[in-house]
Amino acid sequence: MIKKKLAPKPLMYPKPAVLVGARVMGKPNFNTIANCGIISWDPPMVAVASYFGHYTNRGIRRHKTFSVNIPSAKMAKVTDFCGLYSGRKTDKSKIFKVFYGGLKTAPMIEECPVNLECKLVKTLKYGEAEIFLGEIKAVYAEDKYLTNGQPDTIKIDPLIYSSSDKKYYRIGKPVGKAYEIGRKKKQA
Amino acid sequence: MIKKKLAPKPLMYPKPAVLVGARVMGKPNFNTIANCGIISWDPPMVAVASYFGHYTNRGIRRHKTFSVNIPSAKMAKVTDFCGLYSGRKTDKSKIFKVFYGGLKTAPMIEECPVNLECKLVKTLKYGEAEIFLGEIKAVYAEDKYLTNGQPDTIKIDPLIYSSSDKKYYRIGKPVGKAYEIGRKKKQA
After folding, report:
1. pTM, entire model
2. Is residue A113 domain-resident?
3. What angle (nearest 5°) sits at the alpha carbon of residue B129, between those of residues A103 and B122?
4. Is the minimum CB–CB distance between A95 and chain B shorter than 8 Å?
5. Domain CATH number, residue B140
6. What's the rounded Cα separation, in Å, for the pair A64 and A106?
7. Is residue B6 part of a domain?
8. ipTM metric
9. For position A184, what pLDDT does the model report?
10. Is residue B9 part of a domain?
11. Domain that holds residue B173
12. Segment 55-74 of chain B within 8 Å of chain A by CB
């Protein structure tokens, strides 16, 4: 087998496409982010990387709160829109129905199946990336997206971002149960 | 609309299911990780969260290198296996064909369509999570997974992890082109 050595790039498969919310200049603003991920489970924490010049970053720095809103695949168009146009020139405060939780300053999107309300814990900087580490203080979801009280992946129908071809994808078919299909007794 | 407020949990949709590799006690070892994500693009960096007691963590601490190996959906069973059994009791060094790159101590999996070779830059700790921030020093892939010299999502057919139902999924159908479907002129 011959593997090619490629230039280092920020690749991950899959990447999410989430809407990160913050209050900037007295208004809610949202930006589309694919470079993020969970980094701790107790306390639950998320890392969100955003170009330091982004308008949303200002609000996160100021209020030390932000939200991570999970759009469904049918929200692809508006999610893409939020990534294309800066809050500096485009008022994105009226696109969605916005609500707030206990942190008061982290605007969340009603239309998104799942919302993570986050308190900024630490900020890192590498190159032009400002990396916000947030503790997830609450999760919000409508009943219709829950199964046994927990958000259900299939009901959410989350949007997936692919950086190789710059396309959005849907989630596909189940492959098997985790902590199960790899058991030794199941091998061979 | 009534949203339910749920207890804070480390949710993200989608999550990847990657195999993180390190050299421990002179042998390659691999663990399955879903809590990870890209946190910087220049330099390209990845954050990988792993329970501090995991065997793989020892190797990352010692050699200050690790790999992130992207399995395809057809590798679900072996990926699950690597997450179920600790390298402390189960020798995982012979499961895959292993190769090394310029960093010398980050074992990578030939069978995985894409490999990220990483140098440890910083380690964070929150609760029981040890978070390794690594700079991606090289990317490896076979020709058959490339399109125009870049890894191709559809050819990779990456494994997706869903923590709500503890299942693995495939990637599904394309929804639209990013930086395109949300353009104002496309809005109705």
Report:
1. 0.97
2. yes
3. 95
4. no
5. 2.30.110.10
6. 9
7. no
8. 0.96
9. 79
10. no
11. 15-186
12. 68, 70, 73
